[in-house]
Amino acid sequence: MSRIASVSVGILNSYASVGIRMYDRRSFIDASRTLSTPHVFVSGLTMSVDGDNIILCNTEAKGASTAANPAGCSDSSSPVPQPHEKRNSSISPFGGGGVGYVSDVGRPKTVTVSLPEKNKQYTTGKKNRPVQAELDVNKEFLKCRDNGSERLDLSKSSISVIPPIVRELTHLKELYLYQNKLTTLPVEFGCLVNLCTLALSENSLTCLPSSLVNLSKLRVLDLRHNKLHEIPDVVYKLKSLTTLYLRFNRIRCVGEEIGNLTNLTMLSLRENRIKELPRGIGNVKSLLNMDVSHNQLERVPAEIGQCVNLLSLDLQHNDLVDIPDSIGNLWQLTRLGLRYNRLKSVPASLGRYALMDEFNVEGNAISSLPDGLLASLTALESLTLSRNAFTAYPSGGPAQFINVSSINMEHNRIDKIPYGIFSRAKNLTKLNMKDNLLSSLPLDVGTWVNMVELNLGTNQLTKIPEDIQNLHSLEVLILSYNLLKKLPSSIGNLRKLRVLELEANRLESLPSEIGFLRDLQRLLVASNQLTALPRAIGHLTSLTYLNVAENSLTYIPEEISTLENLESLYLNDNPNLHSLPFELALCTNLQIMNIENCPLSQVPPEILAAGSSLVIQYLKMQGPYRAM
């Protein structure tokens, strides 16, 4: 609310008889500037600006004559009010202005509004400023100096300027200034000659003073989340650095001088705009961890192979089309991030990574791996080849999966799983073959006895072999978006199954043996051709989610009443479903029930229109369970 408008709230009740309508002060002043006189006439109200006062007068008041008094306003220097005049004793909310006197007699009634002093700030209530905004930086620096503190944390303090007194903190070893409003640092920073850690992340720095070269003991420099377009030259001169964080800036290139930082063990350049690394990176042989992910890298220099102490190298989410053979020299590497690049192949030299337990090249254009590569990775436990161009399993036979516990081949063009490929994979518990071209499963599928999660969704499977019953450890089975017409009755032997997804197949029925899956919590059978559900579904007492939408169900079995843990039930888009069992009201934990596009002629239209919760109440009242 504008200040003039806020005055109206306080005075309109007292001066209703004056007939004043309050307007925005800016509107008043803008209007007065467009006229040749300093007066404005609005709906029987005139206004004149006298210095910092706005004088409002009702020209339609009884006895007033605008002809005799063109201004229609009393002189602002009117005498002390007479006894018959009424005075507003309230303080103006302008905080410096005020409201003048209003006469009860027949002459034109006037309200004089005094505007506040220029450039004065006003508040509408108690100001609750955060503590950090009131921080006296000088005071904190003096306190640190006087106490001889070696650590100072002024993070999250809304600091925009560092005072020159910082030069006196020569004893300081750790300085934390992250999440402030700094755009630059003073040259006096160069006086902090004992500084070991300098944290400047989450500011707006675009450069650093050259005086930082004096920080000969600086080991950790954190410049994450700033606005650097390049690595400041002075950084390359800080030869004692062991940790350099430059994540989330706007850096486009890395200078050859990076090779000067021979003590660096951690280098993070993640989320910048870097297109290539300099050859000088090979001189930083002390590097243990290097993160250049989420950039625009098109190439990696062969000199990267000289960083033989690297344990982790993250190159994911770049534009790499190849990587040099020399990368295989990094024999101590336990993690190599190559996800989401444009690689069409990887060098065979990667087979030297005897310590690597995870191999992940998701999101590239790789169609094959070098012969024997995976078998050479003897410590391999997790393999992810998803979202590539594989048409077959990597060559290398069963030996390549000896210690592997998880395989993800999702979103490729593989048409079969070779017989016996997992015969030595005794630790394999997770297999994801979603979104491939599988038309059948290998005959030895029954030997995958340790499998816990099996995802075969979005393929072309027409049949599930009976031997699947041997997968006694299976907890998650996903068969959605295939061409299945029926399930084997042996599926009832998967007693540990918690999730069964069968959406978008051609199933006409479910085997009654499904009732043996007492641990099943999630059953999804939407978009099939079911006309009924087996009564044995009532035995699934652990079920919390049931989706049978988009089928041709004609009824819901009354045994559904025993699903006491059911929370979500989707029955929508069953065009032949005309009734619901009264027993549905016994599912007391039901929170979501979708019955859209079901005729349900048994239920009155007005009840249906009111929503599923009222439908449940209706079933309860109409059935034999109304007293419960």
From TrEMBL:
<dbReference type="Pfam" id="PF23598">
    <property type="entry name" value="LRR_14"/>
</dbReference>
<dbReference type="InterPro" id="IPR055414">
    <property type="entry name" value="LRR_R13L4/SHOC2-like"/>
</dbReference>
<feature type="domain" description="Disease resistance R13L4/SHOC-2-like LRR">
    <location>
        <begin position="490"/>
        <end position="596"/>
    </location>
</feature>
<keyword id="KW-0433">Leucine-rich repeat</keyword>
<dbReference type="InterPro" id="IPR001611">
    <property type="entry name" value="Leu-rich_rpt"/>
</dbReference>
<dbReference type="Pfam" id="PF13855">
    <property type="entry name" value="LRR_8"/>
</dbReference>
<feature type="region of interest" description="Disordered">
    <location>
        <begin position="66"/>
        <end position="95"/>
    </location>
</feature>
<dbReference type="InterPro" id="IPR003591">
    <property type="entry name" value="Leu-rich_rpt_typical-subtyp"/>
</dbReference>
<dbReference type="InterPro" id="IPR032675">
    <property type="entry name" value="LRR_dom_sf"/>
</dbReference>
<comment type="similarity">
    <text>Belongs to the SHOC2 family.</text>
</comment>
<dbReference type="GO" id="GO:0005737">
    <property type="term" value="C:cytoplasm"/>
</dbReference>
<dbReference type="Pfam" id="PF00560">
    <property type="entry name" value="LRR_1"/>
</dbReference>
<feature type="domain" description="Disease resistance R13L4/SHOC-2-like LRR">
    <location>
        <begin position="256"/>
        <end position="433"/>
    </location>
</feature>
<dbReference type="InterPro" id="IPR050216">
    <property type="entry name" value="LRR_domain-containing"/>
</dbReference>
<protein>
    <recommendedName>
        <fullName>Disease resistance R13L4/SHOC-2-like LRR domain-containing protein</fullName>
    </recommendedName>
</protein>
<keyword id="KW-0677">Repeat</keyword>
